[in-house]
Amino acid sequence: MTFDFILRIFVAALLGGAIGLEREYRDKAAGFRTHFLVALGSALFMIISVYGFEGGLLTDRHRLDVSRIAAQVVTGIGFLGAGTIIFQKNMVRGLTTAAGVWVVAAIGLACGAGMYILATAATVLVLLGMEAFNLFLRKFDRRRRDAAQRQSTVDQPE
Q: What is the torsional sign of CA 135, 15, 76, 26?
Protein backbone atom coordinates (compact mmCIF):
# COMPACT_ATOMS: atom_id res chain seq x y z
CA MET A 1 0.00 0.00 0.00
CA THR A 2 2.77 2.46 0.91
CA PHE A 3 4.55 1.84 -2.42
CA ASP A 4 1.30 2.64 -4.27
CA PHE A 5 0.98 5.93 -2.36
CA ILE A 6 4.57 6.86 -3.15
CA LEU A 7 3.96 6.04 -6.80
CA ARG A 8 0.90 8.31 -6.81
CA ILE A 9 2.74 11.34 -5.44
CA PHE A 10 5.75 10.61 -7.66
CA VAL A 11 3.63 10.52 -10.84
CA ALA A 12 1.78 13.66 -9.73
CA ALA A 13 5.06 15.49 -9.15
CA LEU A 14 6.40 14.41 -12.56
CA LEU A 15 3.27 15.50 -14.42
CA GLY A 16 3.02 18.79 -12.55
CA GLY A 17 6.74 19.34 -13.07
CA ALA A 18 6.35 18.82 -16.83
CA ILE A 19 3.80 21.62 -16.98
CA GLY A 20 5.98 23.69 -14.67
CA LEU A 21 8.95 23.27 -17.02
CA GLU A 22 6.89 24.74 -19.87
CA ARG A 23 5.95 27.70 -17.65
CA GLU A 24 9.57 28.05 -16.53
CA TYR A 25 10.72 28.04 -20.16
CA ARG A 26 8.24 30.85 -20.89
CA ASP A 27 9.69 32.74 -17.88
CA LYS A 28 6.39 32.90 -16.02
CA ALA A 29 5.99 33.67 -12.32
CA ALA A 30 4.88 30.15 -11.35
CA GLY A 31 7.36 27.71 -12.83
CA PHE A 32 8.68 24.25 -12.17
CA ARG A 33 8.81 24.32 -8.38
CA THR A 34 5.32 25.77 -7.95
CA HIS A 35 3.65 23.31 -10.33
CA PHE A 36 5.68 20.41 -8.92
CA LEU A 37 4.64 21.23 -5.35
CA VAL A 38 0.98 21.89 -6.18
CA ALA A 39 0.63 18.54 -7.97
CA LEU A 40 2.48 16.63 -5.27
CA GLY A 41 0.53 18.33 -2.47
CA SER A 42 -2.80 17.76 -4.18
CA ALA A 43 -2.03 14.07 -4.64
CA LEU A 44 -1.00 13.79 -1.00
CA PHE A 45 -4.18 15.50 0.18
CA MET A 46 -6.25 13.11 -1.92
CA ILE A 47 -4.46 10.08 -0.50
CA ILE A 48 -4.95 11.38 3.04
CA SER A 49 -8.59 12.15 2.31
CA VAL A 50 -9.34 8.66 1.02
CA TYR A 51 -7.09 6.51 3.22
CA GLY A 52 -5.96 8.62 6.17
CA PHE A 53 -9.08 8.30 8.29
CA GLU A 54 -10.10 4.72 7.55
CA GLY A 55 -9.53 3.32 11.03
CA GLY A 56 -10.94 6.19 13.07
CA LEU A 57 -14.28 6.78 11.41
CA LEU A 58 -15.71 3.32 10.94
CA THR A 59 -18.65 3.57 13.30
CA ASP A 60 -22.41 3.79 12.79
CA ARG A 61 -22.36 7.42 13.92
CA HIS A 62 -19.67 8.61 11.50
CA ARG A 63 -19.63 8.77 7.77
CA LEU A 64 -16.47 9.19 5.70
CA ASP A 65 -16.74 11.78 2.90
CA VAL A 66 -13.56 11.55 0.82
CA SER A 67 -14.52 14.53 -1.33
CA ARG A 68 -14.25 17.06 1.48
CA ILE A 69 -10.48 17.50 1.46
CA ALA A 70 -10.37 17.48 -2.36
CA ALA A 71 -12.93 20.30 -2.39
CA GLN A 72 -10.76 22.30 -0.01
CA VAL A 73 -7.76 21.80 -2.30
CA VAL A 74 -9.74 23.51 -5.04
CA THR A 75 -10.52 26.42 -2.70
CA GLY A 76 -6.90 26.76 -1.65
CA ILE A 77 -5.69 26.71 -5.23
CA GLY A 78 -8.21 29.42 -6.07
CA PHE A 79 -6.54 31.55 -3.42
CA LEU A 80 -3.08 30.86 -4.87
CA GLY A 81 -4.31 31.52 -8.40
CA ALA A 82 -5.84 34.85 -7.38
CA GLY A 83 -2.41 35.90 -6.14
CA THR A 84 -0.87 35.31 -9.57
CA ILE A 85 -3.39 37.48 -11.44
CA ILE A 86 -2.33 41.10 -11.80
CA PHE A 87 -4.21 44.02 -13.35
CA GLN A 88 -1.54 46.31 -14.75
CA LYS A 89 -1.82 49.12 -17.31
CA ASN A 90 -5.37 48.08 -18.28
CA MET A 91 -4.22 44.51 -18.95
CA VAL A 92 -4.82 41.31 -17.03
CA ARG A 93 -1.67 39.28 -16.52
CA GLY A 94 -1.16 35.86 -14.95
CA LEU A 95 -4.49 34.34 -15.92
CA THR A 96 -2.91 31.45 -17.83
CA THR A 97 -0.52 30.83 -14.96
CA ALA A 98 -3.43 30.77 -12.50
CA ALA A 99 -5.34 28.36 -14.75
CA GLY A 100 -2.21 26.22 -15.04
CA VAL A 101 -1.84 25.96 -11.26
CA TRP A 102 -5.56 25.12 -11.04
CA VAL A 103 -5.34 22.30 -13.60
CA VAL A 104 -2.13 20.98 -12.02
CA ALA A 105 -4.01 20.66 -8.73
CA ALA A 106 -6.67 18.63 -10.54
CA ILE A 107 -3.97 16.45 -12.10
CA GLY A 108 -2.49 15.91 -8.65
CA LEU A 109 -5.89 14.95 -7.25
CA ALA A 110 -6.37 12.50 -10.12
CA CYS A 111 -2.97 10.91 -9.41
CA GLY A 112 -3.81 10.75 -5.72
CA ALA A 113 -6.96 8.84 -6.66
CA GLY A 114 -4.90 6.45 -8.81
CA MET A 115 -6.24 7.78 -12.13
CA TYR A 116 -2.88 7.84 -13.90
CA ILE A 117 -4.16 7.65 -17.48
CA LEU A 118 -6.61 10.52 -16.94
CA ALA A 119 -3.90 12.63 -15.27
CA THR A 120 -1.42 11.89 -18.07
CA ALA A 121 -3.98 12.70 -20.78
CA ALA A 122 -4.79 15.99 -19.03
CA THR A 123 -1.08 16.85 -18.83
CA VAL A 124 -0.59 16.14 -22.53
CA LEU A 125 -3.63 18.28 -23.38
CA VAL A 126 -2.39 21.15 -21.22
CA LEU A 127 1.05 21.07 -22.85
CA LEU A 128 -0.44 20.80 -26.34
CA GLY A 129 -2.86 23.63 -25.64
CA MET A 130 -0.17 25.95 -24.33
CA GLU A 131 2.26 25.18 -27.14
CA ALA A 132 -0.38 25.28 -29.89
CA PHE A 133 -1.57 28.63 -28.61
CA ASN A 134 1.98 30.01 -28.62
CA LEU A 135 2.49 28.80 -32.22
CA PHE A 136 -0.80 30.41 -33.24
CA LEU A 137 0.17 33.70 -31.59
CA ARG A 138 3.58 33.73 -33.27
CA LYS A 139 1.99 33.11 -36.66
CA PHE A 140 -0.71 35.72 -36.08
CA ASP A 141 1.83 38.25 -34.78
CA ARG A 142 4.10 37.65 -37.80
CA ARG A 143 1.18 38.37 -40.18
CA ARG A 144 0.31 41.53 -38.26
CA ARG A 145 3.95 42.73 -38.35
CA ASP A 146 4.19 41.99 -42.09
CA ALA A 147 0.96 43.92 -42.75
CA ALA A 148 2.16 46.87 -40.67
CA GLN A 149 5.49 46.84 -42.47
CA ARG A 150 3.77 46.82 -45.88
CA GLN A 151 1.50 49.65 -44.74
CA SER A 152 4.44 51.76 -43.53
CA THR A 153 6.19 51.22 -46.87
CA VAL A 154 3.08 52.39 -48.75
CA ASP A 155 2.66 55.44 -46.47
CA GLN A 156 6.22 56.73 -47.01
CA PRO A 157 6.55 59.55 -49.59
CA GLU A 158 8.99 58.99 -52.40
A: negative
**Alpha-carbon gap, residue 49 to 31, rounded angstroms:** 27
- Tell me the CA distances in angstroms from 60 to 50, 63, 66, one per residue in order: 18, 8, 17
d(CA 13, CA 1): 19
What CA dihedral angle connects 136, 142, 144 and 148, to 10 degrees? 180
CB 45 within 8 A of CB 69: yes
Phi, psi of 92 (to 5 degrees): -95, 125
- Mean pLDDT, 10 residues at a time, the chain of 158 residues: 94 96 85 94 93 69 76 86 77 83 95 96 94 80 67 59
Backbone φ, ψ for residue 87 (5° rounding): -100, 115
